[in-house]
Amino acid sequence: MIPLLAFRDNSCDPRKCTVRRLERAGLIRVFSQVSRLPRNTLLLDPTAGRALSPADRNPRSLSVLDCSWEVLENIPLGSWRHRRALPFLVAANPVNFGRPWRLSSVEALAAALFIIGERDQAGEILGTVPWGRRFLELNEEPLDLYSKARDSQEVLEVQNLYY
Predict the structure, then answer these.
(1) Half-sphere exposure of residue 40, counting CA atoms within 13 Å on the CB side?
(2) Comparing C-alpha atoms, which of 87, 18, 80, 13 is closest to residue 46?
(3) Average pLDDT over the chain, rounded to an integer
């Protein structure tokens, strides 16, 4: 199992926060300062220049930024070596259902795990939310194709089929 980490700034509604659910289940370690995240983690960053791909398999850890876009703009993320953006996927969470690129933290982590070949762990963390299975159903085809790509370039080619 890949260790899961998160930076959480507590700006979201605690009743809807998927990182809190993961934390209660003992499936993630949460940091209140982004500088505490290890520099060698595979950091899911929507502003990264490279797409996540199966070539990113076997990271030491996988991290998510659980904060608003406004906060994200003020975080200097360039010092992390392994920053990756997720490819096109559709949200299943109740707040953003059906909207592309608007994934909750648990959806982002699960998608990343699925793409790098950790399907069982992806299913486990999606089990912490009632709509987790629906996320996989909505994105079944692209996730399967992304997970078969060789590198970021192939992931982007697949993404172009959907976006």
Answers:
(1) 4
(2) 87
(3) 91
- Do residues 19 and 30 make contact, with C-beta atoms less than 8 angstroms apart? yes
How many Å apart are CA 22 and CA 66, to the nearest integer?
Answer: 12
Which residues are 31's β-sheet partners?
Answer: 7
Counting Cα atoms < 13 Å in the Cβ hemisphere of 152 gives 11
Q: Tell me: the pLDDT tens digits for 26-38?
A: 999 999 888 899 9
Helices 140-148 and 152-162, interaxial angle, to 10°? Answer: 160
The three-point CA angle 105-107-110 to 5° equals 110
The answer to whether the beta carbons of residues 151 and 55 sit under 8 Å apart is yes
User: Using CA atoms, how far apart are residues 32 and 6, in angstroms rounded to an integer?
Assistant: 9
